[in-house]
């Protein structure tokens, strides 16, 4: 794994007029923004000729010829290359001895010329196993070897010598030799495949200009499906052993629909000629927008039975998110990594819009509300909240602030801006931006400037409020009634905290609702633009006095909604009377916000859930409700055993199992059974799961697929159900696939067994382990489920004591997983105090790890407060 090591500045005599006056680049694994800016000021017109020799073995070799224009030779120039062995290097035709520190090569000014330069480097390197660079995986089913590239945020130099920064776009001409049964996908479609020495030689034409992180080259004996029915040829790749778990017709359908939508919406045709998508193993993220060769993590998109509606919607949404990047990110690219949020926000916004308007999932915005947007609200209320636009000092910090604020708050602000400016004005501004900056790098100011120009409006104030200031505002309706009519109505806005005082301008709809025999019906709604602490709404005077007011009706705005007392009571008592699924989602969320703020007792929320969830007929909303029910059970487990917890736990199990049996729709049945699996902990429920696994208990219409079998086995092992260890061993023999291995690790690690925990803790701590990082990450996530407080406590002090050392030794990829899973929190005041002490005693943690520690502490305190607020023990 990449390690964060700083060797200190080294004084080097490079020669050249001003070399002594220039601080050398810091000798570490990362590139600072200052060094990147200095390099891009000198370098332009970059072209790469890349030759790779892939054998399937642990190492690969390559030769890179890098041509570029150089403005001056007054100082050294660096080329990024990570942990390679250099065989030879020539600079402008002259053989030179590489000055190489395993992170970058330094070219002396004496070897360079002002003008065109050519550098050729032959090298070998180990394949990566952590999901970055040129990753290699051996399929445990058939021994076949697969490779794929992944370069975001700055990992292209883990595959070839490169100026690894977004604003040095280049062209790429690729030649690669592979074993005979391999196929290769890159940014361009191959122009030639020749038989050579027991293998094949693949030749690709020179690409259009791309930032290094958008280039890709993937190779292996992939199964390939093709579809030429649309405007652009489409291909889909997957490992041979999992090909039966792929539904290519669904992939091609959403891809074709999306390409047609974006061509029309952007008014700029897709630029990269063909559209390849690859399902790849051990992937770090959901997907990656490599130009014309997009990668998707297998874990989310392989299915051993027919996809549910939710899985299809997720597939469509991710395909269209990555597709939006082909224009916004690949065609026009940020200058530096501080612009990563705009890439992701825009793709999240456009991906949802395209899903709603070009696929069957017309309710995609409802899913966005209950999924991404709620995560953004949570993130924005944490002590680690940050502005959407934040500085990124170096590539080490590129992902420090990549979170729900980056993706979903950013997307919400763009959605809000579209309402503020008007849909067509917004679209025109986007079109103008893409045309003006195509094949170039652009900044936030360039994007906002294009929108402002289209609108004829100065957006600098809006930009400052929304993009450079942190925190989420709360809005509330303040109204009075007289004679059954609204006599006054004011929308009030408040700031998150005194430390985050910004109030914002925003356009929302205010909805008034009244109860009748037919249910809760909309009586009036108005769209208003509000700003400041108070905005009068005279349009609502004279309306029927409402039973409920929702001041962000249809979810235009990004704001926490604080319901007035009457509206809150109506929401709690009348959820089943609300016809509109989006409004119903929002009212459920208001109740859940009350729980998380320790204002609504958790047991009151669970009482409402038990009364209303089984009757829910909206599939998307049901998913949101059962997620909240599972989170509620998690709080109960974290709080420790109690008579109430045991009683309500059984009630929740019975609710979910009864709904599973009663469901006639396959989607609903699978959602309810998944909920049951996530709730089962009583002896009765665990025995039912064991009986379903063995076939002794048959639930009509329920398909017990291989994935479901593993889910059951993991649950049984989590609670040490008698015989569960033997069931795990037998299932490992039955399913030797990569996903089976992952599931087996999860089921083994989650067992409440101190010896097992110690063995896996040692594996996790071994930064040189041969186990692929994807499996280490799985182990981390299974170590300490909420109810295993005693086991968690056994090593809690040790894990906190060594956190600083682990943070220094491991890299950001490792620490993102470690920080999310291995920092101890056990929902007690003592646990909160212990985390306080760690925060005070570890001032030198990396930014990402410190964030994880602060968030863990805040959520631990929240759990304690929720426990204290409960009215039933």
Would you summarize the structure shown here?
The protein is an alpha+beta fold. It is built from 27 helices and 28 strands.
Fraction in helix:
40-55%
Mean of the pLDDT scores? 94
CATH fold-level topology of the domain at 19-221: Immunoglobulin-like
Please tally the helical runs, counting DSSP H or I stretches of 4 or more residues. 27
Q: Rounded to an integer, what's the Rg over CA atoms?
A: 28 Å
CATH homologous superfamily assignment of the domain at 19-221 = tricorn interacting facor f3 domain
Query: What is the 3D shape?
Result: globular
Descriptive report:
With 873 residues, this protein is of the alpha+beta class. Among the domains are: 19-221, Immunoglobulin-like (Sandwich); 328-467, Neutral Protease, domain 2 (Orthogonal Bundle), CATH 1.10.390.10; 474-557 and 559-566, Immunoglobulin-like, CATH 2.60.40; 784-873. The chain has 27 helices and 28 strands. The strands form 8 sheets. An 8-stranded mixed sheet has the order 5-4-7-2-1-10-13-12. A hairpin with a 4-residue loop joins strand 18 and strand 19 (293-297). Helix 14 (619-639) crosses helix 27 (847-869), helix 17 (683-694) packs antiparallel against helix 18 (706-718) and helix 18 (706-718) runs parallel beside helix 20 (738-749). The model is unreliable at 1-21 (pLDDT under 50).
SSE layout:
Layout lengths: L32 H10 E11 L5 E12 L6 E4 L4 E7 L2 E2 L8 E4 L7 E12 L6 E6 L6 E6 L19 E10 L3 E4 L5 E5 L2 E5 L13 E4 L2 E5 L6 E5 L9 H19 L8 E6 L6 E2 L4 E5 H4 L7 H19 L5 E2 L5 H19 L5 H17 L23 H18 L1 H15 L3 E2 L1 H12 L4 H8 L6 E9 L2 E10 L11 E11 L2 E12 L3 E3 L11 E3 L9 E2 L3 H10 L6 H16 L5 H11 L6 H21 L3 H20 L3 H14 L3 H12 L11 H13 L5 H11 L3 H12 L4 H12 L7 H10 L6 H13 L1 H7 L2 H10 L7 H13 L5 H23 L4
Parallel strand pairs: 1-10, 16-17, 17-19, 20-21, 22-28
Antiparallel strand pairs: 1-2, 2-7, 3-6, 4-5, 4-7, 8-9, 10-13, 11-14, 12-13, 15-16, 18-19, 22-23, 23-26, 24-25, 24-27
């Amino acid at each position: 794994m990449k390690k964060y090591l700083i060797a200190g500045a080294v004084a080097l005599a490079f020669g050249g007029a001003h070399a002594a006056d220039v601080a050398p680049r810091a000798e570490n694994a990362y590139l600072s923004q200052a060094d990147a800016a200095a390099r891009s000021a000198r370098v332009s017109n970059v072209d790469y000729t890349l030759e790779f020799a892939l054998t399937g073995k642990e190492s690969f070799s390559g030769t890179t010829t890098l041509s570029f224009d150089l403005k001056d030779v007054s100082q050294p120039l660096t080329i990024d290359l990570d942990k390679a062995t250099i065989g030879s290097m020539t600079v402008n035709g002259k053989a030179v001895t590489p000055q190489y520190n395993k992170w970058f090569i330094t070219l002396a000014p004496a070897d360079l010329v002002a003008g065109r330069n050519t550098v050729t480097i032959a090298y070998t390197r180990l394949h990566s196993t952590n999901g970055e660079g040129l990753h290699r995986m051996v399929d445990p089913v058939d021994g076949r070897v697969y490779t794929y590239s992944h370069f975001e945020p700055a990992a292209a130099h883990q595959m070839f010598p490169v100026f690894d920064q977004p604003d040095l776009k280049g062209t790429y001409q690729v030649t690669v030799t592979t074993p005979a049964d391999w196929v290769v996908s890159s940014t361009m479609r191959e122009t030639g495949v020749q038989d050579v020495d027991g293998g094949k030689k693949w030749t690709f034409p020179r690409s259009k200009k791309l930032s290094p992180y958008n280039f890709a080259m993937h190779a292996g004996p992939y199964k390939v499906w093709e579809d030429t029915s649309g405007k652009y040829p489409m291909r889909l790749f997957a490992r041979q052993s999992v090909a039966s778990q792929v539904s290519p017709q669904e992939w091609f359908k959403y891809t074709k629909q999306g390409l047609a939508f974006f061509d029309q919406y952007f008014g700029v045709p897709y630029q990269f000629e063909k559209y390849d998508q690859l399902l790849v193993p051990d992937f770090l993220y959901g997907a990656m927008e490599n130009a014309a060769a997009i990668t998707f993590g297998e874990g989310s998109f392989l299915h051993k039975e027919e996809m549910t509606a939710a899985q299809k919607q997720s597939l469509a949404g991710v395909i269209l998110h990555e597709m939006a990047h082909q224009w916004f990110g690949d065609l026009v690219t940020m200058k530096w990594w501080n612009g990563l949020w705009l890439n992701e926000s825009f793709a999240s916004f456009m991906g949802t819009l395209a899903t709603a308007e070009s696929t069957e999932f017309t309710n995609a915005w409802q899913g966005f509300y209950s999924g991404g947007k709620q995560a953004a609200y949570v993130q924005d209320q944490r002590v680690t909240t940050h502005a959407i636009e934040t500085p990124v000092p170096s590539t080490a910090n590129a992902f420090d602030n990549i979170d729900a604020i980056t993706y979903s708050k950013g997307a919400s602000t763009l959605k809000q801006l579209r309402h503020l400016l008007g849909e067509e004005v917004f679209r025109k501004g986007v079109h103008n931006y893409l045309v003006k900056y195509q094949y170039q790098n652009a900044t936030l100011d360039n994007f906002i400037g294009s929108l402002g120009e289209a609108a004829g409006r100065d957006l600098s104030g809006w930009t400052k409020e929304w993009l450079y200031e942190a925190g989420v505002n709360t809005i509330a309706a303040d109204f009075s009634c007289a004679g059954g009519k609204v006599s006054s109505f004011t929308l009030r806005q408040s700031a998150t905290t005194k430390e985050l005082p910004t109030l914002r301008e925003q356009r929302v709809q205010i909805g008034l609702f009244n109860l009748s025999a037919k249910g809760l019906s909309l009586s009036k709604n108005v769209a208003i633009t509000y700003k400041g602490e108070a905005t009068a709404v005279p349009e609502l005077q004279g309306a029927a006095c409402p039973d409920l007011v929702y001041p962000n009706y249809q979810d235009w705005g990004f704001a926490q909604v604080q319901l007035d007392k009457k509206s809150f009571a109506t929401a709690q008592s009348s959820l089943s009377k609300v016809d509109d699924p989006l409004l119903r989602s929002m009212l459920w969320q208001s109740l859940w916000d009350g729980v998380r703020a320790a204002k609504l007792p958790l047991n009151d929320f669970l009482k409402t859930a038990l009364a209303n969830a089984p009757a829910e007929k909206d599939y998307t909303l049901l998913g949101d409700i059962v997620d909240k029910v599972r989170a509620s059970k998690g709080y109960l487990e974290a709080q420790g055993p109690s008579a109430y917890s045991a009683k309500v736990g059984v009630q929740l199990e019975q609710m979910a199992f009864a709904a599973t049996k009663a469901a006639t729709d396959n989607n609903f049945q699978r959602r309810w059974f998944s909920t049951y699996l996530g709730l089962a902990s009583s002896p009765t429920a665990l025995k039912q799961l064991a009986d379903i696994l063995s076939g002794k208990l048959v639930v009509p219409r329920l398909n017990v697929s291989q994935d479901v079998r593993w889910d059951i086995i993991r649950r049984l092992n989590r609670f040490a159900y008698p015989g569960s260890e033997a069931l795990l061993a037998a299932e490992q023999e039955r399913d030797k696939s990569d996903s089976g291995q992952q599931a087996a690790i999860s089921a083994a690690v989650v067992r409440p067994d101190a010896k097992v925990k110690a063995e896996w803790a040692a594996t996790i701590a071994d930064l040189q382990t041969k186990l692929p990082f994807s499996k280490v990450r799985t182990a981390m996530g299974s170590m300490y489920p909420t109810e295993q407080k005693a086991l968690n406590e056994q090593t809690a002090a040790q894990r906190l004591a060594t956190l600083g050392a682990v943070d220094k030794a491991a890299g950001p990829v490792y620490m993102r997983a470690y920080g999310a899973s291995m920092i101890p929190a056990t929902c007690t005041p003592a646990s909160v105090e212990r985390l306080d002490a760690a925060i005070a005693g570890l001032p030198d943690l990396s930014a990402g790890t410190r964030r994880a520690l602060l968030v863990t502490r805040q959520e631990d305190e929240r759990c304690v407060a929720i426990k204290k607020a409960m009215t039933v023990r």
